[in-house]
Design goal:
Elements: E1 21-22, E2 25-30, E3 41-47, E4 52-53, E5 63-69, E6 72-76, E7 79-83, E8 88-91, E9 98-101, E10 107-113
Antiparallel strand pairs: 1-4, 2-3, 3-10, 5-8, 5-10, 6-7, 6-9
Length: about 120
């Protein structure tokens, strides 16, 4: 674990299209590579119109999503939830979930995952 504050500028990171994502991009800011010893990861995601990810779950990781801009839908267990700025989603381990941009502008959100998925 780092014993100093780490400052990261999102402008220094490129957009990646993770596996199981369709027209859905993330900037992985806090990972074990960018912050050695980090016990979580933090990313900003941008889903252009019709961007989405496939339904999936994480064995032991919890996730928090915070919607910054745009609109979309989150699906879990056959239930749909409307997404808009200010909405926070909490996804426990082993819960299937998917997100899709159903609006007419980019859906932008932040994600914190309790166990690093990258790095």
């Amino acid at each position: 674990m780092s014993d100093e504050m780490v400052v990261l500028d999102a402008a220094d990171f490129g957009w990646d299209e993770p596996e199981m994502h369709v027209r859905a991009y993330s900037k992985c800011l806090v990972t074990r590579e960018t912050v050695p010893g980090a016990s979580f990861d933090f990313r900003i995601s941008r889903y252009p119109v019709s961007g989405r990810n496939e339904s999936h779950s994480h064995e032991s990781a919890e996730q928090l999503f915070y919607i910054i801009s745009g609109t979309g839908t989150a699906r879990s267990g056959g239930v749909r939830h409307r997404l808009s700025p200010g909405i926070t989603l909490y996804v426990p381990p082993r819960v299937d979930h998917a997100i899709e941009n159903t609006g007419d502008e980019d859906l932008v959100f932040a994600i914190v995952t309790t166990e690093p998925l990258v790095g």
